[in-house]
Structure formats: structure tokens, C-alpha cells
């Protein structure tokens, strides 16, 4: 069964004005869709076509001869995860167990926020900034291109896409403003908390 492009979990204009309808039309309907199409083309008539998306990623991670499969499969996964990492009326601070763990592992939400924004701003070129659970500890990481926590034995809790296509129409070169807006107005802490509780 072929991999499918999941719908956005909200309307294309739901994140406006922070992320415009036009950005989501290109980013979801064109970029994300293309990764799905490319992945299906690459795994067609191979044993990988019967794997789950995560199964494909784990099977080819680190195999240079399968870089195309890895890149497209990981980008399909990353984008689906990114859509859920945002919500209309999101942002602010988490609560409950996640808030307590952020306090314990980072020394407070502000320190987490600074680390997350720095990771996103200093990822040279295309990539992603992440909040991950790594061996029971929360960490902020950044990955290049399609790379993702799953390939490093970590559990992703939240991500922000820092490829230029994610923000250029709305923020041009101002990636730090996009990252601040992500934390202030978009981050879906319910989704991150759910990912933490599933991993614990
Ligand atoms: Mn993207």
C-alpha cells in the first residue's frame, strides 16, 4: 500500500497571520506532497513498500546507498510531525508533567526556549530544531536536511522546520522572528505532552 499525504490537522488559513495560508499551500500541498510521491516511486516493487514509514526510516538510516529513500521518508515523517507541533492559538508554556520535566532538565522554560531558538537559528542551511527525549532526559537538538531523532535513538516531542520554504514567504530572511513566533503563538504543547507520556 502506497504512502499517503495526511491532511493538515487544521485549515490552511488557521495559523494566519503567523504562518500564512499561502505558505501552508506550498509547504503542505507541494513540498510535503512531493516527498510522499518521491518516496512511493523509490520503494515501489521493493520490500520497503510493505513497511511502515518508521520501519522504512529505520531500515535505511545510515545506508549511503539508500540516501534518497531515507531523505524522502524522513521528510514525510518530519512534516507530519511538524504540522502537529503547531496549533491555532498555540504557544506559551506547557503545564503538568511536561512543564515539570522542562524545569528539571533545562532549569526553567526560559532556558529551554533560548536553547530551542538558538538551535533553530544556528542550524546552517536546511534542517530542523527539536525537543527530544534522549535516555530519559529532555534535550534540544538540531538536525540537517531530513535527519531526525528516530535515526539517533531519540524520541521526538516537538519540532520546527527551519528550511527556508517553511518561513520565507512570511518572514523572508528573519528566521529568528519565525522561531520566536513559533514559541509564542504556535507551539502545540498538548502534542508534546502526549508524546512525552507515550514515551514514559
Ligand atoms: Mn519543510
Q: How would you characterize this protein structure?
A:
- This protein is mainly alpha-helical and 200 residues long.
- Helix content is 52%, strand content 12%.
- It contains 8 helices and 3 strands; from the N terminus they run H-H-H-H-H-E-E-E-H-H-H.
- The protein has a 3-stranded antiparallel β-sheet.
- Helix 1 (21-43) packs antiparallel against helix 6 (164-171) and helix 2 (53-60) packs across helix 3 (67-84).
- The longest helix has 23 residues, at 21-43.
- It is globular and about 50 Å long.
- It binds manganese (III) ion (MN3).
- Manganese (III) ion is lined by residues 27, 31, 79, 161, 163, 165-166.
Comma- or semicolon-separated keywords:
mainly alpha, three-stranded antiparallel β-sheet, binds manganese (III) ion
Amino acid at each position: 500500500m502506497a504512502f499517503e499525504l495526511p491532511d493538515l490537522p487544521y485549515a490552511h488559513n488557521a495559523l494566519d497571520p503567523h504562518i500564512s495560508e499561502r505558505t501552508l499551500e506550498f509547504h503542505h500541498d507541494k513540498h510535503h506532497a512531493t516527498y510522499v510521491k518521491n518516496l512511493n516511486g523509490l520503494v515501489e516493487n521493493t520490500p520497503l513498500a510493505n513497511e511502515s514509514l518508521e520501519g522504512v526510516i529505520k531500515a535505511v538510516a545510515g545506508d549511503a546507498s539508500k540516501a534518497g529513500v531515507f531523505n524522502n521518508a524522513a521528510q514525510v515523517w518530519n512534516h507530519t510531525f511538524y504540522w502537529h507541533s503547531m496549533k491555532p492559538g498555540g504557544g506559551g508554556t506547557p503545564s503538568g508533567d511536561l512543564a515539570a520535566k522542562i524545569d528539571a532538565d533545562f532549569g526553567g522554560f526560559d532556558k529551554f526556549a533560548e536553547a530551542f531558538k538558538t538551535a533553530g537559528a544556528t542550524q546552517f542551511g536546511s534542517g530542523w530544531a527539536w525537543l527530544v527525549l534522549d535516555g530519559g532526559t529532555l534535550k534540544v537538538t538540531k538536525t540537517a536536511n531530513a535527519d531526525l531523532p528516530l535515526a539517533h535513538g531519540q524520541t521526538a516531542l516537538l519540532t520546527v522546520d527551519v528550511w527556508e520554504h517553511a518561513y520565507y514567504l512570511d518572514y523572508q530572511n528573519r528566521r529568528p522572528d519565525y522561531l520566536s513566533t513559533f514559541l509564542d503563538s504556535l507551539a502545540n504543547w498538548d502534542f508534546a505532552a502526549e508524546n512525552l507520556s507515550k514515551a514514559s
